[in-house]
Amino acid sequence: MLNTVQGFKVLRLIFSAESTSSHDILIKEHSIRTKDESKPLGQTLFVLNVPPYATEAGLKNAFSPPGKITRVIIEEIEQSHSNRNGFKKAFIVFNKREYLLKALCLKTLKPMSPTERPLKVGLEKWIEEYNSSICDPEELQKRVTNYMKQYDKKEIKSQKVEVVDDEGWTVVTKGGRKPGIARKESVENKLVSKGSKKKELKNFYSFQIRESKMKNIATLRKNFEEAKSKVIQMKNARKFKPY
Question: For 8, phi and psi rounded to 5 degrees?
Fold first, then answer.
């Protein structure tokens, strides 16, 4: 078996101690310049040719002897003529750089599936994943109940009725199945239905006050001119006319 290939170290990966077959993977220190907090430089091992059946837990078991592993990331590789079988790449992040250096010196790997805690693969794994994807009926009922409670609260808030008081102010109150105020007869009589006209506030805004003053001045001027003309007519009627 070759020890290195194009800067990668070759290690043999086995699934369990009872496995009769193995798979060669390629490892080296992750040294890409692009900064990625999930793959810190100086602590991350780059792994190529990871078989499709490998899992994060399995790789963590295989590389556990050097020291504590904080994270295992498995990523897909773009399909090509050289990667038709779905092989992947992985990043194994150690807690300290010294653990990474020890991993680079490894000659053998532990089995991915430990005897005391065997990993599930194949049909057994698919059945477990399918069963875990099915929501528990009781949990589903709780989620539905909580959702409907929140929905009802939003509906109650959105259902509002406008009431106009004696002074023309619009009073907003809750309506619907759970009204926010008691609907007395005096309140019911003031409820504004669709199509009805709301009571208009007069002389409330500054432009309304200006318009009102201008109208009053115009009216006073008109009345003054009319009174003036009447006085002139009365004076003319009083003049002495001997002939």
Answer: -100, 145
What does the block give as tokens for 18? 């009872």
Query: Which single residue is written with the structure tokens 């092989």?
Result: 87
Q: Would you list the DSSP string of the chain?
A: --SEETTEEEEEE-S-TT-S--EEEEEEE---SS--TTS-TTTEEEEEEE-TT--HHHHHHHT-TTS-EEEEEEEE----TT-TT--EEEEEEESSHHHHHHHHT-SS---SS-SSSPPP-HHHHHHHHHHHHSPPHHHHHHHHHHHHHHHHHHHHHH-EEEEE-TTSPEEEEE-SSS-SS---HHHHHHB--TTPPPPPP-S-SHHHHHHHHHHHHHHHHHHHHHHHHHHHHHHHHHS----
Give CA–CA dist 214/211, Å, rounded.
5
Residue 106 has pLDDT above 90, yes or no: yes
State pTM to two decimals: 0.50
pLDDT digits (tens, 9 = 90+) for 6-26: 889 999 999 888 877 788 999
Q: Let me know if domain 4-121 sits in CATH 3.30.70.330.
A: yes
Domain limits, the chain: 4-121, 155-207
